[in-house]
Every structure is written in C-alpha cells, then in structure tokens.
Amino acid sequence: MEDSSASAPLWVGRFEQPMDAAAWALNASLDVDRRLALEDVRVNQAWAEALHEAGVLSAAERDAIVAGLGTIAHEFQTGTFVFRASDEDIHTAVERRLRELVGPLGGKIATGRSRNDLVATDFRLWLLGQLPHLEENLIQVQMALLTQAEASGDIYLPGYTHLQRAQPVLLAHWWLSFFWMLERDRQRLGDLYPRVAVMPMGAGALAGAGFPIDREKLAQRLGFLAVSQNSLDAVADRDFAAEFLFVAAMLGVHLSQLAEMVVLFSSQEFAFLELPDRFATGSSLMPQKKNPDLFELTRAKAGILLGHLTALMTVLKGLPLAYNKDLQEDKGQVFAAMDTLLAVLPVLAAALRAINVNAEHMQAAVTDELMATDLADYLVKQGLPFREAHAVVGRVVREALALGRPITDLSEQALQAIHPLLTRSALAILDPVQSLARRNLSGGSGPQAVEAQLQAARVVLNQRRVPILRENVRSIRTSETSIGL
C-alpha cells in the first residue's frame, strides 16, 4: 500500500528547497531495502532498550517506543503498513510511522545513532537470518547426490580428462565428487557467519555514539557474536556482503559444473542419464525433443552470480572512508544472489533425485584402452621404469588403433614385437573391475575406498556449519510476501 501524503525527510533542516523529484527517485532505496523491515524494527527495539540503560529514555518512554515498534512489526507482518511517497528508505519509513504512533517521543529513537550504522546492522542481521535457510537447501542437494551414490552399487563409467575417456571410476565416486564440492561451499558459509555476526550499531555516522551505550550487551541482545572495533570501519565495511557473494558465486560455479555434466550425459550421444519428464521441457517446433532446460538455467545462473560479485567489488573499489552513498548499491546484489540460490537449489535437489541411470551404456563405454595405465603399472612391477613402461604401452595402443581392434585382440607375436615382457596373459589386467579394485587407497575410486567415502559423507551431513540465529531475533520474522515484497 502507498500513500501520496508527504512528510519531511530526516535531513530537511539544513535545506531551503525540496529535492528535485527525479533526484529524489534516484536517491531513494525503499524498493530494495524494504526487505529489511522486520530487522529494522528489531534493531530499533533493541536500541530503545540500550538508550534506556544509558539513561536517555525513561522506562515509560522505552515501553511506549517498543510498543509502537511492535505495532509497526504487526503492520509489516499483516501487509497493512502504509508507505508514503516521502519514505526515502525503510529506516525513514519506520521512524516516520513511529512518530505517527507515539508522537514526538518517536524522534528520540534516533538519539546517538545514524542510518549509517543502522542500515549496516539491519543488513547483517538479515543475512544472518538467511544463511541457515541457504544451508538447509544446499544440504538437500548434497542429500540427493548421496542418494544417487548409494544407489549406484558397483556401476562404473569412464572418467574424463579434457573431455576424453581416461580411466574407469565407480558411478558413486562420480556423484560424490560433486558432493564434496558443495561441502566446501557449505564450510565457506559457516566460515562466513562469524564475520557477518559483528555488530556495527553504536558506530553512529562514523565517530561512535555520544552516549554510554553498552554495545556488548546490545550485540548479545540482537544475536551478534561481537561488536565492531572501529567506528570508521564499521559503517564502511561491506566485506561480509562481498564475501557472501563470492561464496554464492563459487557455489554457482559448482552447480554449473554439475549441471553441465547432466546436460552432457543426458544427451543421445552419451545416453548415460535420462531426465524424467517432470524435470525436462520440449520443443515448440520439434516433437521429438526432450530438453534439459532446468540444468541449462542452473548453468546460466553461475554467470548471474558472478555478475553480482563483480558489481559489488567494483562499487567498493577506491571508496574513501567512511560511509558513502555508493554503499546503497550493496543490498540489491546480495538479495538477488540469495533469491537466485534459493530458487535453484530446491529444484536441482528434486531433479537430481529423479534422474535415471543407464548402467549398460555407461559400462559399455569403458573399453580396454581405459586400463592402459594398469598395463603400464604391470610392467613397472616387472622392473621397467614407469616412463619406459608408459612408452611401451603407448606403442601397444597405437598398434591396436592401426589395426582397428581392441588391445585384447592383439596377438602374442605382436605384443612380443613391442616388448618381451608383454604376453597375452598380461592383457588379463585390462579389466575395469580389477582396475577399480586396485584403487582402494583413501579417496580413491575403488569399492572399499568409495564405501568409506559414503560413510564420511553421511557423517558430514549431520554437522551444521551455519549457526541458527537466536530465536528472540527470529521471532518477528515472517514471510516476506506479507510485507509486499
């Protein structure tokens, strides 16, 4: 809802003329930062308590302000809050409405604080509340990958380097390779949390509040882990936003790599995977088509996420201390990145669970030349230096290619002509099951190593990387759709 009636901006006293309408539209940020509505209410409530403890507000004044802010929170939650054309941002809107509810007393809430420290605090509090949701959705994708790995049994397929067939690997090992990429992303979310959970409130505009605010107590009340150590840095710091955008971009890159492999392996040229109809699309022209659009879109989102990171880093580059209006451009990038991930991850998790595996096609693609390294290792055990063994087996492969036949079809005579240690019996080593069985070292692609890896994956899924924000801070949060977002 929006009301056309106007009230004066918070900074109007210095100015004789109203701001140009187009300039006002450019300057205002309400369309973006209204998502911080409930965080702004919560921080203002905690600030009123801090002002009371500092002797600025009486108990009655504190209670009236906190109650007024509670009414505002209810209005946001029920969608009945009326924004005005004069609301420059969410902070202006909340303070303006508070003064409407409690009269001039509402103006006392601004004592000792600035929008500079308020917006930074709101923003951090919002991100702290969102990180657990992001982790929960990321875990669902990891669970889908683990489910596929557990169902893969002893199925094997070619592993690739340079997109050329390389060596056989278990399908479970292949699925788990993406699991561990995402686990590193989840660890980065956990590592990020304590750097987000540093409270700027009390830094004022840049020099610190002029009243004896107990910042440590205020931080504890809001659920922060620490207070900022330098007021200049506190209002200018957007490292946490840039770091989140890096984590989001890195996650996007990993999801893109996974999506690319699904697109590739579900093509008719590979036919290793098949997408269920409910996670595929068709062609408006060609009736036979079944397209992996959802995975292609996942792949594309990596570029969008990288763009958000690049945009914010470019904004931050070269800014003078302390606060600058440039920093208004921070929230849109973070909000958009979070929205993108929270839209992609649930769909990707469900689609991965539903993918069908064509084991016959996968295993048929493991031809005997993929065990060439095993044959070289055999020659090493017979006493040849590896580089010599590598060259000998290279000649074996070349001979088979020239004849257009598998290596296992080469005659004893042909093998002996290449090297006296080569015999027909030696070619028995060119077996994918045996090849895998020889790779049971920790982290390897052998059956025992993969079983240990599955166990390790189950363990890490039970570990929460991102703390859940204290319940008293989350208590007033509700669906953002009810705020008209």
UniProtKB/TrEMBL annotation:
Argininosuccinate lyase C-terminal domain segment(s): 370-436
Domain Fumarate lyase N-terminal: 13-304
Catalytic function, reaction form: 2-(N(omega)-L-arginino)succinate = fumarate + L-arginine
Subcellular location: Cytoplasm
GO molecular function: argininosuccinate lyase activity
Organism: Thermanaerothrix solaris
Location (main, coarse): cytoplasm
Residue stretches spanning the membrane: none
Record pathway: Amino-acid biosynthesis; L-arginine biosynthesis; L-arginine from L-ornithine and carbamoyl phosphate: step 3/3
Name the record gives this protein: Argininosuccinate lyase
Transcription recorded as keyword: no
Keywords, ordered alphabetically: Amino-acid biosynthesis, Arginine biosynthesis, Cytoplasm, Lyase
The family this protein is said to belong to: Belongs to the lyase 1 family. Argininosuccinate lyase subfamily.
Listed SUPFAM superfamilies: L-aspartase-like
InterPro entries with a match to the protein in the record: Arg_succ_lyase_C, Argininosuccinate_lyase, Fumarase/histidase_N, Fumarate_lyase_CS, Fumarate_lyase_fam, Fumarate_lyase_N, L-Aspartase-like
